[in-house]
Amino acid sequence: MDALHNLLNAEALLQSFGPWALAGIAVVIFIESGVLFPFLPGDSLLVTAAILAPQLGLGRPQIWIVAALAAVAGDQVGYHLGLGFGRRFFKPDARVLRTDRLEEAEAFFNKYGALALILGRFIPIVRTYVPVAAGTAGLPFRRFVVWNTLGALTWVTSMVLVGTFLGGIPGIAKNIELLAIVIVLVSVTPVLISFWRKRSKAKAEVARELDSIDTLEESEV
After folding, report:
1. 22 and 39 Cβ atoms separated by less than 8 Å
2. In sequence order, what are the residues at sequence separation of 6 or more whose Cβ sits closer than 8 angstroms to the Cβ of residue 102?
3. What is the pLDDT along the chain (221 residues), one digit of tens a residue?
4. What's the pTM value of the predicted model, to 2 decimals?
């Protein structure tokens, strides 16, 4: 349980890296960006790192550069996994590589096209699977590189700027765990909205089917 807490808690995770905090940030962002492990605190990690930069002995420009490079590289891996293997990694009953998660990312990509590589950066889980969906869909590599880079820079810059701003507010560093919870709640809101919409749609479809059955039975009588 302590290991899981440290993995999901951005402050604890940063502290566990010790003098290798910058390398740790790079590894987490790289993995979450496209190496098919979406349950890492990417958003809160970047914001927290920017807030605690002085205590960690890091400069915020360092965090920005390393995180941006890791985000671009992680998506490159995801794209080539999708291009080379498509859906073969995914199973309906898998714990992590579930088919429905890929299908959600594919629907998101089909709706927004290459722009999904920017918008998807701000949505946990979708962030990890969109580059795979882009590769599966056969998005031309040059277009992918451009939109992937724009998405990485937009996301990392936004998170680091938020952390820089919050870091200047007295008392924030002492309440970092509460702040991390708020960040996580805000970041997962789009996922919860999507889940609610799907559930409502499924209920409406079931209701329509029941109504049609009742109508058919009444007509037969």
Report:
1. no
2. 87, 90, 129, 132, 133, 136
3. 444 444 557 778 888 888 899 999 999 999 888 777 766 678 888 988 998 898 889 999 999 999 999 999 999 999 998 888 877 778 887 776 778 878 888 888 888 888 888 888 888 778 888 888 888 888 899 999 999 999 999 999 989 998 888 877 766 655 555 555 566 565 555 555 555 665 666 566 655 655 565 555 555 55
4. 0.74
Vertex 53: Cα angle to 71 and 38 (nearest 5) = 30
Tally the domains of the chain.
1
Residue 217 lies in a domain: no
Tokens linked to 54: 């002085």
Q: Which two tokens stand for residue 56?
A: 């960690």
Do the domain assignments include residue 95? yes
